[in-house]
Amino acid sequence: MFLGDFRHTLDEKSRITLPAKYRLELLAGVVMTTGFDHCLLLFPQQGFERLADKIDNMQFIGREQAALRRKFYSDASDAIPDKQGRVIIPDELLEYAGITTNVVIAGLGKYIELWNPEAWAQARVQMQEYAAQQDLWSKLGI
Fold first, then answer.
1. CA–CA separation, 91 vs 100, rounded Å?
2. Beta partners for 47?
3. Mean pLDDT of successive 10-residue segments in the chain (142 residues)?
4. How many structural domains comprise the chain?
5. What is the pLDDT of residue 81?
6. Residue 19 in 3-state DSSP?
7. Is residue 36 in a domain?
8. Longest dimension (CA), the chain
9. What is the reported pLDDT for 138?
10. Of 21, 47, 68, 70, which is most buried by a Cβ count within 10 Å?
11. What is the pTM of this model?
12. Nearest-5° angle of CA 84, CA 101, CA 8?
């Protein structure tokens, strides 16, 4: 399970070093793709394959499903971390997320999000406001 957030810097080859606590789950490979709110999603290879199975087994009815399949697969890029736990982020994905030098790596349970630090700071404020407005903690029985 991926928990916490970390700040890292891209190196000159557009690589990020994955947090040490995540590396064992990511040794077999990762898949990155565009996410929501201009972040990137990073899945363990097996997690991406499970999600791909769900998408592939969707009833193919119309444009919504076609758009989902196109976005899910055409934006995706796979990689195998090197011995230091680094992976290259393709330029198209960096541009989409507005990531230039610094990146926030946020664990979200079964996957990871990669964020521009300023966008992450704004998203955190929005998350807190939404959670308070919707009284999410009490809905979870907390």
1. 10
2. none
3. 96 97 96 94 96 84 80 93 97 97 97 98 86 69 68
4. 1
5. 97
6. coil
7. yes
8. 46
9. 72
10. 47
11. 0.88
12. 45
Determine contact, residues 4/109, Cβ cutoff 8 Å.
Answer: no
- pLDDT for 65 equals 80
Q: Is 65 part of a structural domain of the chain?
A: yes
Q: The CATH number of the domain where 84 resides is what?
A: 3.40.1550.20
Please say whether the beta carbons of 86 and 23 come within 8 A: no
Q: Which residues pair with 109 in a beta bridge?
A: 2
Residue 133 belongs to a domain: no
The pLDDT value recorded for residue 136 is: 62
Amino acid residing at 85: G
Report how far residue 136's alpha carbon sits from residue 81's, in angstroms, rounded to the nearest whole number: 36
Residues 6+ apart with CB under 8 A from 76: 31, 32, 33, 48
pLDDT at 13: 96
Token pair belonging to 32: 């990155």
| Contacts of range 3-9, beta carbons closer than 8 Å, 24 or more positions apart | 3/107, 3/109, 4/106, 4/107, 5/104, 5/105, 5/106, 5/107, 5/120, 6/104, 6/105, 6/106, 7/102, 7/103, 7/104, 7/105, 7/117, 8/102, 8/103, 8/104, 8/105, 9/101, 9/102, 9/103
In a domain, 142, yes or no: no
